[in-house]
Design goal:
By secondary structure, this protein is of the alpha/beta class. The protein is about 25% helix and about 25% strand. The N terminus is likely disordered.
């Protein structure tokens, strides 16, 4: 999810600027350089991609919602993982920023029940202050037996300030996901000092 006062730039990334002011060229360049360096050093996106490739193998005919699909000016799937899923699946790209051209979805209040078999929420929750509301909303939107896939940072630089609110431990993530029937958490890096965490949370039948 991109806060509304963060301005998309023309070559990648989301640039912080005070409300009402367009970011300068130097701010855009700084943001792009920092993001490229962070992805290279931490490898979080490629790590999530490898785990998702395993998760989606053989998946067909499912209803999938992606939260925070991002900008499209570099290509429809430049910031999305839609390409990993078989074409037989119904894949809904969404974002909170109207300019990105996806379905508008506020993760805190999706407004649907039992609607999706899979929800992807990848590096979004750190930008949602009402994080428990968001998890409850996604739980309601999942069909029984459906899976919520959540990626969150632990040791990670500030980004998209000032709406970069949270860093998560394994214990915090388990508490947040306690409405789910089963939860598997994977870590990027050492367990005691992870860079990021990835959770697969399955909604119990009947609840």
């Amino acid at each position: 999810m991109t806060p509304l006062h963060l301005h998309p730039d023309s070559e990648g990334g989301r640039v912080e600027a005070p409300v009402g002011r367009t970011p300068t060229g130097r701010e855009r360049l700084t943001t792009r350089t920092l993001r490229a360096g962070v992805h290279l050093v931490f490898g979080t996106r490629s790590w999530v991609r490898r785990n998702l490739e395993q998760f989606v193998e053989g998946m067909t005919g499912k209803r999938i919602l992606e939260i925070g699909s991002g900008r499209q000016d570099l290509g429809r799937d430049a910031y999305s993982f839609r390409e990993l899923f078989d074409a037989s699946n119904e894949f809904v790209q969404s974002d909170v920023v109207p300019e990105y051209g996806h379905q508008l979805v506020d993760v805190r209040d999706i407004g649907l029940e039992d609607a999706y078999d899979v929800i992807l929420c990848l590096y979004v929750l750190e930008h949602v202050f009402e994080v428990e509301e968001a998890v409850r909303s996604m739980h309601r939107a999942l069909a029984p037996g459906g899976t919520l896939v959540v990626a969150v940072p632990h040791l990670y630089p500030y980004h998209d300030e000032p709406t970069d609110y949270w860093r998560f431990t394994d214990h915090a993530l388990r508490q947040l996901l306690r409405p789910f029937g089963s939860v598997e958490i994977r870590v990027r890096g050492p367990r005691k000092m992870p860079i990021a965490l990835l959770a697969f949370a399955t909604k119990a039948h009947g609840g």
